[in-house]
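I hope you will forgive my troubling you with a question about protein structure. I should value your view on which stretches of the chain appear to form regular backbone elements. Here, with my thanks, is the record as I have it:
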Amino acid sequence: MITEGRCVVLIICVLLFVPETQTTDVTDIQGHRIENLGHPEVTREVTRDEGEVMITDTQTITQFVIQNGVRGLIDRVYIGEWSVTRRASLVEFLIASSTGRQLYLLYDQHSESIAASVKASYSRGGDIGVYNYQGSISPLEYELKSYFHRENLRNVIVMCSSTNTVDVFRQIYDRKMESPTIYWWVILEDDVTQQVLDNMREGTQISVALRVDESKYNLMRSFVNKEDELKLQNVGSWWWTPAEGPQHFLKEPLYKDLMDVYSDFGGRLMKSSVVDNWPFFRVMKDEASGAIVPDAGIDFHVLNTIAAKLNFTYELLLAEDGQWGGVLPDGSITGMIGMVARHEVHFAINEITITGPREVVVDFTLPYFLESTTIVSPAPAEKNRAFAVFSPFTAEVWGLLSLATLLVGPILWLISWAKEKHVLRGTWHADSLSNYTFNMFRSMVVQGNKTEMLQWSHRFLLFTWFFFCYVVYALYAGTLTAVLAVPTFEKPIDSLWDLLTAIEEDGYKATVVYQTSNEFIFKEATSGIYKQIWDVFDPSVGYVYTWDEGVEKVLTGKYAYMNAQLGAEIRAIKRGIHNYHFAKNTFYPQGYAMALPSGSPYKGKFEKLLIQLASAGLVDKWTRDEVAKVAGAGGGEASKGPGAITVVHLQAAFFLLAIGYSTAGSVLLLERLARFCYGRKEFEPTYVGRSGAFKGIGY
């Protein structure tokens, strides 16, 4: 029992040995200046300025003694010391319950003294940040989102008044600070757990130490029940006494790794946004209940497998606009992505491409399906066969052949004339220029040659000409057979450059599905072929709103539809793949993933299962199964190989024959008319006979 005299002695000692203005030792802890408080019974004000924690007295001991008396001072000394020690021991216990090495302490003026708590935190090792809550968690938010403080797990200990604690979690909710890498440890003096839960979303992981008396705290851990409600589960208790120190009892771990937490969803009903998008996810409406039910598709099998493995059921909700969605310039978010971002559903899985703007508002798992984008255009039309007989050679070659044929006759005639005038001198007479030219033409078209050449100068010339004609004929005959037997087509669209040319020169229109990643890559491009195509893109006719609409539009005119290859091919097969042409060169490789709300705690578990499904080949198997459902559909025309030669192939030959008949008839009429007008003798024909003088020439 403390007597009055002893109290007086105690007061004198306090006044003598404790200065009027308290100064404290300063210890530098991981870059933070933390003052070592020698007298925890005095209320402190703690502020953070440029990374430093400065603690100064707001009430001197002398003033306290005057206001509260000796008994109050004694109670404050012992009870305050115990309170600070108890709080520091509790903080140390909470930190020890986690595996994270990065720690943040958030406190307010309600906290007694945090120096001991900080020292207890520092004793566990790792980085430590201390923040004084003054109505905003912006400094803490900035630190948590900084890449300089990124760990697999960060711990935040909240040591604030009940009112401020609720306000802290309201701000966490408003700022969407859910993250699987942040764990919140909350020390509560009053029971405001329900208010805290009301300001939380799944993704904010917390453990609570709720004080129930002077020395004991109940320990609770957050979880989501089968009804999809956030609750706190009592997992044990912790207490501290001056005699025995800290002790605890745990039925379950106070902190549980998320991979273990979400290994079993306990039969929860999860919601997923979808659009009707076979072969990935075909859905139907149940006539009785009006509910959207799955029917088939690759992602349907993926989701069913994950649901069975993790023990949950799911409900499908259609995106009202029927779009995959994304972030619009006004900040609104459309389609399935918007439903996930607004936490209207737990996830979306339906051929969803990972893009930068989407990653700002939702989280994506690792991709489980990879493919590229293709260009679908109308099947190239078969070229006109009217002049197929001329197709083996180019116009340049035809021109050179005609020139060679026209020249060889005059050259042969010049040689013969020179031989007649200067060598044989009357013993041999050359043939006419027209006969030489016509016979050289006969050789070119493989019709023989009736000119007999007894002179070696003629023979050498004709030897080279006959060999030349043989080579030309062989090449022409072989190529013509191939051209006539196998149809030729107009130049197809096989690349983005071909598409740009077709748009600019042939009047083609590019089409994409509205609000998809394929629109985004062109719309956001700042240079290169993507931007060039977007510059000539016509939104009034270029947008379609479903995959089927895009494939069908190709058949209505000069449209080139750009979308992922698998879905486009399957839809083309159903409509007759022979009606379409798929570009040989694909572009924009893209990965499909599940879209989850930002900070989703089950992302890691979903990723692990998706990787296992892809690695095991199950995704490929389900893809083959869906393609097999339409194999042979659409009435495609099977290739029959080379066909028989028809009149269509030979119409150019008949056309030339008709020209020959017409020309010959016209010449005959002109001759008859001229003979009638000028008389018979002027038009008597002159023949080169077979006299002895012309024996060397002959016919």
In short: The chain is about 40% helix and 20% strand.
